Amino acid sequence: MTLPATLQSNRITFDDPLSVQEHFHSRGWTDGLPIVPPTPDAVTACLDWAGLPAEHLVGVEPVRGRGLTAEKIAVNAVMAGCLPMHFPVVVTAVAAMLAEPFLLHGSTASTGGSAILLIVNGPIRNEIGMDATFNALGPSDRASTCIGRAVRLVLGNLLEVRPGEIDRSTFGHPGKISWCMAEDEEHSPWISLAEERLGDPHVSAVTAMAAMAPRQLMNEWTTDPEEILDTFVAEIKANMRHYSIWAGNYAIVIPPQLRQHFAAAGWSKSDIQNYVFEQARIRRGEWADCGKGAIVHGKDDQEYAALPDPSHLLVIAAGGPAGGFGAVIPPWLGHKSRAATMAVGACVDC
Amino acid sequence: MSIEVLDPTYGDGLAGAGSQEFALAERLETLAGATVGFISNGKQGTVRFFDALERELIAQYGVAHVVREVKSNYSAPADPDILDRAKEWNALVSGIGD
């Protein structure tokens, strides 16, 4: 076979696909699961689908000054199981993560152990078969799982964000294997997350957030939006008391059974953001109730808000049709990393 | 039938065009009479560690001056003004601590 002239990565030849697996595992190039062998043809197919030359610079990791090329990202996307049609989402996710306010190095190196949550909006969700309903925060469909995994392999192989190397997480959480979801725009009374953040109702986009593990809640015993949100707020406040008090991007995921009550009451995403902004606050003295009295330092009445302002709350419509559940996804260490939203197909350096 | 695959790592030398390669500074022959800077990440646990390191460097190695700086964001690189001042130092310790 003639290799495409544009691909520059080192090429390695094996006798059979099983040998590829063992070689890649032995070098620490995988997440422990089997990978798809990144053949030149498969990598080229990804690049062709996205219309990107191999040498295209998707972005530069700002702390270590590493430029990440489309070719290297494609190699890892293929390994993760991505089809060519998934690749534009992977590229967009990586570009969003490389935005300076995201602070990729800090959020992936920290002992805090956050994962990168990707939220996909727009027509591309349906084109690649993403499902925003059942098991929305888990492995709901092939595209979501492979795209989330691709990002994790990119971190490991291109930035050495591997456990014990750059990744110093004390615990981490299962979202670090793969964490990508779509918003359920078709069954939502609200504007999408991407429209809210980019101002375009037709855009396909990816939002990346340095996210702690989701905290699930349940309240199916009221139809009052304020009472429903009080349960979300209680979970946010618990996170502030037990984990981190610092304000930042919180995400809340609201399923259809609860969304219908907000729709009936005429509540917009903005109404939800404003209510949570006002209510999600704790006093420093509350730390003494949960064993952290040593750091109250006499400032018992000092108040802390979960959100720097209402727009920092990412309100996401997703989840299966039945169940009055919800999820709060806390940020990694407050405002140090800010969620970044990037349009699919946007060029950041041209 | 053989199978050919591509190296997935950054380490095979295929750096993106925007990459900056960092190199270690030249090693000092001696610390005697040197000015050594400490860049702390700002976490509480660094204070006692750097206090002890300062004492050791002066007592054991004859370091003339120790300059202490603290980053404004412990997860981000050092602030530009700190890096400007660092140009005046002979050596620096960029320590992490928790």
Overview of this protein structure:
- The complex is a heterodimer of chains A (350) and B (98).
- Chain A has 350 residues and is an alpha+beta fold.
- Chain A has one domain (17-343).
- Chain A is built from eleven helices and 13 strands.
- Chain A has helices at residues 17-26, 40-50, 70-80, 87-97, 104-109, 124-127, 142-159, 193-198, 225-242, 256-264, 269-279; strands spanning 11-14, 57-61, 66-69, 115-121, 180-182, 205-211, 215-218, 250-254, 281-283, 303-305, 313-317, 325-329, 340-343.
- A four-stranded mixed sheet of chain A has the order 5-4-6-13. A four-stranded mixed sheet of chain A has the order 7-12-8-11. A two-stranded antiparallel sheet of chain A has the order 2-3.
- In chain A, α3 packs across α4 (87-97).
- Chain A is globular, with a radius of gyration of 21 Å.
- Chain B contains two helices and four strands; from the N terminus they run ββαβαβ.
- Chain B has helices spanning 45-61, 80-86; strands spanning 3-6, 35-40, 65-70, 91-94.
- In chain B, strands 3-2-4 form a three-stranded parallel sheet, with helices on one face.
- Chains A and B meet through β1, α1, β2, β3 and α3 of A and β1 of B.
Brief overview, please?
The complex is a heterodimer of chains A (350) and B (98). By secondary structure, chain A is α+β, with helices and mostly antiparallel strands.
